[in-house]
Every structure is written in structure tokens, then in C-alpha cells.
Design goal:
By secondary structure, this protein is of the alpha+beta class. The protein has four helices and 22 strands. The protein has a six-stranded antiparallel β-barrel with strand order 4-11-14-13-12-15. Strands 1-22-18-17 form a four-stranded mixed β-sheet, with no helix packed on it. A four-stranded antiparallel β-sheet has the order 3-16-20-19, with no helix packed on it.
Length: 426
């Protein structure tokens, strides 16, 4: 081995003592981290006397929402003016009972009256013209028939003369000129008769067309006159049915436009409820959707009978009828609350709603400990809801108690410590 050569020592791994020391250091760091994270949790001491609580429990959950409704008569007839005019007389004030046919209001309309007079005048003129045409045509027809009768007589006489001349001509007892003259006269009269018959036929066809046109014109004028008469009659507004008249929206001397509504008549033998529903529910409401109405401590079942899908002020309207009994104290125009049900009731885990939902949006709650001395921040998941309860899908069990009052002053603390055990009141 030369002086340049050097023995290399074999390296050894860390000793057992070093490993033990390293493990201890890691455990110490973990303990420190745990203590740091534990110390990062926020705790808040609170007074529980003003807090509300609720127990999580299984029960029949019904998804519904209350909406405002107004009681209306089941049968209503509106008084819309067919033709405008000036109010001349008011015979019945609003709020009174009227019988079918009773006179309620009277209008005047000079334009309509002039139109009616003009139409009647044209009708009379056309009738006179038709009568004159019929008379003239009848006279003309009589003259033509008289001419035809005279011509037939001449033809008959000429035929007899021609027959005699023909017999005498065979015996050379008459001149040929006389025979030919009788023959030509007969042919002339026969052709003249054909022309006269054709003229009579043409005159008849022309007369029929003229009479038909005149009749059509008269019929149209009669229809116009009938329509005007009906419209003029409608200026006397009468009750179309028997019932209670609402307030009359008209004053003496007021000009009312065509189609304007001046009132309505209600038949108070049945009621319905007109309900205004938020447009959010338009896809969930259909004919047959059920609900209920509470009045004077009694619950009445209702069902949607008609839907008006037009959106006005972010809401649409439905008419609901009573499924069975009708509240005896129901009155027209009365305001009621109708709870519309969405879906069938189901057995679900649920808890009462409260102010907490405003701050948490149903994502977490404060779960009360068994000793009632603390409440801990707990994530949950909620489902369907109604004004009283929410459906619990995850995070809570039957029998758990939670805080339902507002969490606004808690700043989402991890744990609430009560100054005294909280009272659990269902």
C-alpha cells in the first residue's frame, strides 16, 4: 500500500438513541400544533334566558305555503257598456238586490239615434223601390202575355187559312201568290212568337235577379236596423241576472265609453277564493292542487279550479273552491289566508323554524349538549320547508335539541357556553 492510499471507513445509520430523540421531537411538535389549533377555537359565554330551542323529531311533514286570498262570489256577471253614451238616469244604487230585467241605468246617444233613423229611412226607400219594381214587372209581364195570347190567336187563324189555301192550291182553285202569302205569313208569326217567348223568359230572369238583389238589400238593412235597435235598447242597462249590484261607477251627465265596465252583479249562493301566488310557484300549481283555509278555529279544504297565468306584480292568480263545507260566516270581499300544499305529506325528520335560518341559510346550527350547558357549531343539510318546520336531511338525529333563536350576535363562535343550563321548551 502506497502512501497515497487511504482506508475508507464504512458509514453507519443513525443510532437507536437518535431515532428515539427524533420521534419524541415529532410528537412534541404534533402536541404543540394540537394545542395551538385547540386554542384557535372560539368560545362565547351567553345568557340563555332569552333563547328559544326546538327538538329534532320524526313526524308528518307537509310542504305548504300561505298566500293571501279574497272571497268572491262563485257567479259574477259584469256590466260592460256595449255602446257608449251620456248618463241620463240612474235607477238603482250599488249594494242593492236586483231582479233579472230591472232597469239600472239609462244612457242617451244622439249618434246612434241618427244612424237608426237613417237606416230606417233607407229601408223604407228600398221597400218602396222593391214594391215599384214588382208592380212594373207585373204590368210588363201582363202586357207580354197579352201580346203572346194575341199572337197565338193570329197564328191559329193563319194556320187555318194556310190549310184551306193548300187544299185549293192542289185543285188550282186559288192563285199561287195567295197560297205563298198565307205560308209566309204563318212562318213570320211563328218566328215572332219564338222571339216573344224568349223575351218573356229573359224578362222573367231579369225580374228574379232584381227582386233577389232588392230582397238581399232589404234583409241587410233589416239586420242593420235590428242591430241598431238592439244597441239603442242596450242604452237602457238592465240586470241580466238576479243578484246583488256592486257600486255603480257612473254619474249623471257623465260620458261613458264603449266597453267600459260600470259595475257587476254577484249571485251570493256560492263563494270562491281568489288567491294571489308568488310567481316562484307557478310551475308547482296546477288545477287540482289542494290546500286548506282556517277560519274561526275551523279548517276547510280547498282545491284549485282555475289558473290565470298572467304575471302581475311578480304574482299570478288562481281561483280555489271549497271541497266540501263552506264557512257559514264567509262574506264577499273578506280577506283570508290559504295554505297551498305542494306534494303529499311524508314521514320525515324535522325541526321547527326560527330566526337562525336568517344567518345560516340552513347550512349549520348550534347543537345543545346533553348537560344543557353548551351549544356547539354543527354543520347540517336541510330540505323542504314550510312556515313552521324545515326538513332535516343530514347532521342531526331524533331527540337532538338546537337553538332556534337568532344567531346574529354570536359571530359564528365554535361553542356557546351558557351562564346557566338552558331550559328546553318544546
Amino acid at each position: 500500500m502506497s502512501q497515497m492510499d487511504r482506508v475508507l471507513e464504512k458509514r453507519r445509520g443513525p443510532s437507536a438513541g437518535v431515532l428515539a430523540l427524533a420521534a419524541f421531537a415529532v410528537a412534541a411538535l404534533a402536541l404543540v400544533y394540537f394545542m395551538i389549533t385547540r386554542s384557535a377555537e372560539t368560545r362565547l359565554r351567553v345568557d340563555p334566558t332569552r333563547m328559544t330551542t326546538a327538538r329534532v323529531e320524526m313526524g308528518e311533514f307537509r310542504e305548504y305555503y300561505p298566500f293571501d286570498g279574497r272571497v268572491e262570489p262563485e257567479t259574477t256577471v259584469y256590466l260592460d257598456i256595449e255602446e257608449g253614451g251620456r248618463v241620463e238616469e240612474i235607477f238603482v244604487e250599488g249594494g242593492r238586490y236586483v231582479e233579472q230585467g230591472d232597469l239600472i241605468l239609462r244612457f242617451s246617444n244622439a249618434t246612434l239615434q241618427r244612424s237608426s233613423i237613417d237606416t230606417e229611412t233607407r229601408l223604407i226607400e228600398n221597400l218602396n223601390s222593391l214594391n215599384n219594381t214588382q208592380f212594373n214587372r207585373a204590368q210588363s209581364a201582363l202586357l207580354l202575355r197579352d201580346q203572346l195570347l194575341d199572337l197565338d190567336y193570329r197564328i191559329l187563324d193563319t194556320e187555318k187559312t194556310h190549310e184551306r189555301y193548300a187544299a185549293l192550291n192542289a185543285q188550282d182553285a186559288v192563285t199561287r201568290e195567295a197560297f205563298e202569302q198565307a205560308r209566309d205569313e204563318l212562318q213570320y208569326l211563328r218566328r215572332k212568337r219564338e222571339l216573344l217567348a224568349e223575351r218573356i223568359e229573359q224578362e222573367n230572369r231579369m225580374t228574379e235577379r232584381q227582386l233577389e238583389q232588392a230582397s238581399t238589400s232589404i234583409e241587410r238593412l233589416e239586420l242593420s236596423l235590428d242591430l241598431l235597435t238592439r244597441i239603442i235598447d242596450s242604452l237602457d242597462v238592465r240586470a241580466p241576472i238576479s243578484g246583488f249590484l256592486s257600486s255603480v261607477n257612473a254619474e249623471l251627465g257623465q260620458n261613458i265609453n264603449r266597453g267600459q265596465r260600470i259595475g257587476q252583479i254577484d249571485v251570493l249562493d256560492g263563494y270562491k277564493v281568489s288567491v294571489s301566488i308568488d310567481q316562484y310557484y307557478i310551475s308547482r300549481v296546477e288545477v287540482g292542487t289542494r290546500g286548506r283555509l282556517e277560519l274561526d278555529g275551523q279548517t276547510y279544504d280547498v282545491v284549485v279550479e282555475k289558473i290565470f297565468p298572467e304575471i302581475v306584480n311578480d304574482a299570478f292568480t288562481v281561483d280555489v273552491d271549497f271541497s266540501a263545507d263552506v264557512p257559514p260566516a264567509l262574506r264577499r270581499g273578506q280577506r283570508v289566508t290559504v295554505e297551498m300544499s305542494f306534494g303529499e305529506p311524508t314521514e320525515s325528520l324535522m325541526v321547527a323554524r326560527g330566526g337562525f335560518y336568517q344567518q345560516t341559510s340552513g347550512r349549520w346550527v348550534y347543537l345543545i349538549s346533553e348537560d344543557r350547558e353548551t351549544a356547539r357549531w354543527t354543520p347540517i343539510r336541510l330540505g323542504r320547508q314550510n312556515p313552521r318546520f324545515v326538513e332535516v336531511l343530514e347532521g342531526l338525529r331524533p331527540g337532538d335539541w338546537i337553538l332556534t333563536s337568532s344567531y346574529e350576535s354570536f359571530n359564528e363562535a365554535d361553542e356557546l357556553r351558557f351562564s346557566e343550563p338552558i331550559a328546553l321548551i318544546e
